[in-house]
Amino acid sequence: MTLKETFEQAVADSKTLATRPGNDTLLSLYSLYKQATDGDAPEEGPSNPFDFVGVAKHGAWAKLKGTSADDAMTQYVALVNSMK
User: Fold this and answer.
1) Tens of pLDDT along 16-51?
2) Which domain holds residue 13?
3) Rounded mean pLDDT, 48-67
4) Of 35, 49, 70, 83, which residue is least crowded by CB atoms under 10 Å?
5) How many Cβ atoms sit within 10 Å of the Cβ of residue 73?
6) For the chain, how many structural domains are there in total?
7) Where does residue 22 rank: exposed (0-12), middle (13-18), buried (19+ CB within 10 A)?
8) CA-CA distance, 80 to 46, in Å (whole number)?
9) Mean pLDDT of all residues in 2-17
10) 79 with 28: CB under 8 angstroms?
């Protein structure tokens, strides 16, 4: 399997985990997915400072700035596999 196929399988597997991951793990999954699929986060996050979830998601994604798509996919796959 190619890395992209392995990543896509991990994305599918993440939706069928036996237990729901904690918020920190969910943020990691989100940020790694976005970095792998969209690249670096935009400079500006949500315009509403009271959008706490959106601000947290943007912050987690922004921390991965400069991480290559392949590295983000590899980290995502490893994280999902560790939760199986």
Assistant:
1) 999 999 999 999 999 999 999 999 999 999 999 999
2) 3-83
3) 96
4) 49
5) 22
6) 1
7) exposed
8) 27
9) 97
10) yes
DSSP 63: T
77 close to 6: Cβ distance less than 8 angstroms:
yes
Contact 45, 60 (CB under 8 A): no
Tokens 């920190």 map to which residue? 24
CATH code of the domain containing 48 = 1.20.80.10
pLDDT of residue 80: 97
Check: CB of residue 66 under 8 Å from CB of residue 34. Answer: no
> What's the pLDDT at 27?
97
For residue 78 the two structure tokens come to: 């490893």
Structure tokens at 34: 């976005």
Residues 61, 79, 51: CA angle, nearest 5 degrees: 30
Tokens for 60, please give them: 């987690």
